[in-house]
Design brief:
globular
């Protein structure tokens, strides 16, 4: 069984805010890369028409995502005017504390949290 957690959120980009959002997400990505050595991947995607953004990250375990949510929290309010969050999907098992952290994010940005527990599969990711 894999302990990896995959995080995927989907947001609508508010009209006229795409360029500001792209700049903010570039800054956020640099921050995550510099301060979160355990995160395996952190990627931001935009639809061709610029109306939708998805953020995908991969964590080695729940503790990594908990840390991410703790340090990211204060950096979310400046991004709130640029997006309306639709969903946060978590692929993997999370505890109540992490679920509460995710709910706080949805209270700020909108949307809902969906957690899908791991059932079967494997990952071919080299260990550090």
């Amino acid at each position: 069984m894999s302990n990896f957690l995959l995080y995927l959120d989907a947001s609508d980009v508010r009209p006229g805010k795409l360029n500001e959002l792209k700049t903010a997400m570039e800054d956020l990505t640099r921050f995550v890369e510099a301060t979160e050595p355990r995160i395996i991947a952190y990627n931001v995607y935009f639809s061709a028409d610029g109306t939708r953004m998805n953020v995908l990250h991969i964590h080695p375990d729940a503790a990594s995502l908990e840390f991410h949510m703790e340090i990211l929290g204060p950096r979310l309010p400046p991004i709130a005017p640029f997006v309306t969050l639709r969903t946060i999907e978590i692929f993997g098992t999370v505890g109540n504390g992490l679920r509460q952290q995710l709910e706080v994010k949805t209270q700020l940005l909108g949307g809902s949290v969906i957690v899908l527990d791991h059932h079967a599969g494997f990952a071919r990711v080299p260990t550090a």
